[in-house]
From TrEMBL:
Pfam families: Pribosyltran (PF00156)
Keyword tags: Glycosyltransferase, Transferase
GO MF annotation, one: glycosyltransferase activity
Record CDD domains: PRTases_typeI
Name of this protein: Phosphoribosyltransferase
Record domain Phosphoribosyltransferase: where: 13-157
UniProt-listed SUPFAM superfamilies: PRTase-like (SSF53271)
The organism's place on the tree of life at top rank: Bacteria
InterPro entries: PRTase-like, PRTase_dom
Length: 171
């Protein structure tokens, strides 16, 4: 099936903040039902930060960390490969832990793959949780709230930033 581009407004998946709250609880319930007890929730910044925080509270995991991976550079525009940006958590600090990697979407899955590979040799186990998963993702998340082929409008990125860091205030 052909991938839907962001230009097709009718084919967009719209996530509201209220639905986001539901998604967090339902994802946490999937983790609990699976019997997985993570020692740490590792957020993929920026999109996975809110999910990681919510999962941390719902699963009573106080140990949260983040990795910043740049892949998307604009709407439906991305780099050739994801790049992990500094600072990165010291993998030695993750040794022997059960890690839950949280991100907003597994589109290509390449971002999650980079993070999973980054921790793989150090952790006891790593699993992934996403709000949305695309069928063509190279990573199949253990926990996904919804599966879609549509472009997703997240509540935190549906409107332009108030500031344009490349040139002052946004209009």
């Amino acid at each position: 099936m052909a991938r839907v581009t962001s230009d097709d407004a009718a084919a967009r998946e719209i996530l509201t903040y209220a639905q986001f709250g539901t998604a967090v609880r339902e994802l946490a319930q999937q983790v609990v039902d699976d019997g997985y007890e993570p020692d740490i929730v590792l957020a993929v910044a920026r999109g996975g930060l809110g999910l990681a925080m919510g999962l941390g509270y719902a699963l009573d995991v106080k140990n949260l960390s983040a990795v910043n991976v740049e892949f998307y550079t604009g709407v439906d525009e991305r780099l050739d490969v994801p790049i992990m940006l500094p600072p990165t958590p010291a993998v030695i600090d993750l040794t022997g832990m059960k890690v839950l990697i949280a991100d907003d979407v597994a589109d290509t899955g390449k971002t999650l793959e980079v993070v999973r590979d980054f921790v793989a040799d150090h952790v006891a186990e790593a699993r992934t949780a996403v709000i949305y998963e695309k069928p063509w993702s190279v990573i199949k998340a253990e926990y996904a709230w919804r599966r879609t082929e549509r472009w997703i409008d997240f509540p935190w990125s549906a409107t332009p930033p108030l500031v344009d860091r490349r040139g002052g205030l946004a209009h």
